[in-house]
Design brief:
The chain is α+β, with helices and mostly antiparallel strands. It contains 21 helices and five strands.
């Protein structure tokens, strides 16, 4: 029905435009008013909210600046607003959203002479890439920041960030070579927090390469932080000392773990509290273990909920502002066109007015149709995503926690094998919690896809499970579409999770091969198998089948009780 109406409207509109083309056309020049004064007022308000850590209000005002600011004639205010928005998203752990926001500034940095704006942008990008494990891009932007003509403090800060990126890559000796000169730099020494941070990082790097100098650097960092009463820094120092003493003096290590947790609790830093809790869980038993495990799980739930809400809220602010701007632009354009037509068509007959009315009706129909369709799709996608994550939390994490608590209550944890089993269970819970929290992160589908796929599969390899992988390098992944690579990753991940939870398999074999037109993947294990009549949504295989069918593939499941489990699927290149 709608296409038929659209054809009619387009036909009438074409006739109307043809008639107008016969007339002499006037040119209307619309002079754009300067918005700089209004922009600066909004930035003052936004900065006040930002300084008071009222980030939702600050984000909203910076976003208003973005949409009324001319990025060419007023590039400084435009870049400032976007950098602050990206920084707020970064604060809430939305590194992908932060990257998307700050990238919008890159095209307009050339209009700004002051290098501090480019420096802020590059540093934000570098931090985002470090936190998403893209160290190559992180180092690229850090080095771009280092090339700028900035203050000595800014240059030393960039060097510290570069060294930290090396440390995160476990290139400890390279990191030490950068950190060491920073500790004697007068500019860094003028800022005790930065000086202590450099000493702490050096101590940690020495600790990781078993250099006895580690302890002295850790102690120096703690002394500086204690003198300036920097609670978060003190907590970090206690955490480092706890790691240092775990094998040398367990009781002293335990003391530092508790002190670290207390300091991080005072400053209300959830990420750091989780790091301390992880150490406490790994080195506790009985009631303490249960206590710290419960706190840890509650923290994971709360941080996921808070960050997800913040992410959704900031996305909605951006979407609503863009929608409002687009609507205002349409209204202004439409009003200008109407005024011109009224001046030129005073003597027009009634047919011209009918055609104008039909044209307006077409715009309204299209607008409401597309808007309604887009809203329905967004609501449906959000609901499906939330349902899937909630189910995963219930099906995987809740059961594991319950069984771990039951194990802790019923087993003698003074026995080393029981304690090791409990620690292993808690590590599994931690890994699953981390995986679920990152569930919405994009899968790498670039040239590193093979590496990430192999790492994911290798993550299921344990002393009790032997996992063999054949033919993965023979596949030309560069020629395969991105959505198909994502499907292969998710399907194998689902099969391996089911194997680990249900099959009791000791051997898993995954084989890849290609034909002229298809990619064929075979998964098999020697587990307890499954009755084909019981295959349903409950065991996750329904999702696997839907994913394969979505890329026009085929899937076949071959299993029986006691005879292992096999899945064959293929999809076109």
């Amino acid at each position: 029905m709608i296409p038929t109406r659209l054809n009619l409207y387009f036909s009438i509109l074409f006739i109307f435009l043809l008639l107008l083309s016969c007339q002499k056309k006037d040119i209307i020049t619309v002079k754009q008013k300067s918005t700089k004064a209004e922009v600066e007022k909004l930035i003052i308000i936004a900065d006040r909210f930002y300084d008071n850590k009222e980030y939702d209000s600050a984000f909203s005002y910076y976003n208003k600046v973005k949409f009324i600011c001319n990025p060419v004639t007023d590039a400084e205010n435009y870049v400032t607003a976007l950098d602050r928005m990206a920084d707020i998203q970064q604060t809430y752990g939305d590194y992908t959203g932060s990257e998307s926001t700050v990238t919008e500034t890159l095209a307009y940095l050339k209009y700004i002479k002051d290098p501090k704006y480019a420096w802020d942008t590059y540093i934000i990008l570098g931090i985002n890439y470090v936190n998403t494990y893209d160290y190559k891009n992180a180092l690229f932007y850090y080095n771009e920041a280092l090339k700028l003509k900035t203050t000595e403090w800014q240059k030393q800060t960039v060097k510290s960030n570069i060294a930290f990126a090396y440390m995160e890559q476990k290139k400890y000796e390279e990191a030490i070579q950068i950190f060491l000169p920073l500790t004697t730099n007068k500019t860094i020494q003028e800022f005790p927090e930065d000086h202590a941070r450099a000493l702490d990082h050096i101590g940690y790097c020495y600790f990781k390469i078993n250099d006895p100098k580690a302890l002295s650097y850790m102690q120096k960092a703690l002394k500086i932080r204690s003198e300036i009463q920097h609670n978060r820094g003190i907590g970090t120092s206690y955490h480092r000392l706890a790691q240092f003493y775990i094998n040398k003096n367990p009781s002293l290590a335990k003391k530092f773990m508790k002190l670290s947790y207390e300091k991080f609790t005072i400053v209300n830093n959830i990420d750091d509290r989780m790091l301390s809790l992880k150490l406490l869980i790994e080195n506790s038993s009985d009631g303490e273990l249960k206590k710290y495990s419960t706190i840890y799980v509650n923290l994971v739930d709360s941080i996921f909920e808070v960050r997800q809400k913040a992410k959704n809220q900031f996305a909605k602010i951006k979407y609503d502002s863009k929608k409002e701007k687009d609507e205002n632009l349409k209204l202004k354009t439409h009003r200008a066109e109407n005024e011109l037509q009224l001046e030129k068509q005073k003597n027009r007959n009634i047919i011209s007015y009918i055609i104008i009315a039909l044209s307006l009706s077409l715009i309204i129909v299209l607008y409401f149709y597309l808007t309604s369709k887009g809203n329905r799709e967004k609501i449906e996608a959000t609901y499906k995503s939330e349902t899937r994550i909630a189910k995963k939390l219930h099906d995987e994490l809740a059961n594991d926690i319950y069984h771990t608590m039951a194990f802790a209550e019923n087993k003698n944890l003074s026995l080393s094998e029981n304690k090791e089993q409990l620690i292993q269970n808690l590590n599994v819970i931690y890994s699953r919690t981390r995986d679920i929290s990152k569930e919405n992160s994009p899968i790498i589908t670039s040239e590193k896809y093979t590496l990430y796929l192999k790492e994911m599969i290798a993550g299921f390899n344990t002393p009790d499970i032997n996992l063999l992988l054949n033919g993965i390098e023979a596949i030309s992944w560069k020629e395969i579409e991105e959505n198909k690579k994502i499907t292969v990753y998710r399907v194998l991940q689902e099969l391996l999770v089911n194997m680990k939870k249900h099959s009791s398999a000791s051997l898993v074999v995954i084989t890849f091969k290609t034909t002229d037109k298809n990619v064929i993947v075979t998964y098999s294990d020697n587990g307890k198998g499954i009755d084909p009549n019981t295959i349903s949504i409950k065991n996750g295989l329904h999702n696997v089948e839907n994913r394969i069918l979505a890329i026009k593939g085929k899937i076949d499941i071959d299993s029986s009780v006691g005879k292992g489990f096999k899945v064959f699927f293929e999809f076109p290149l």
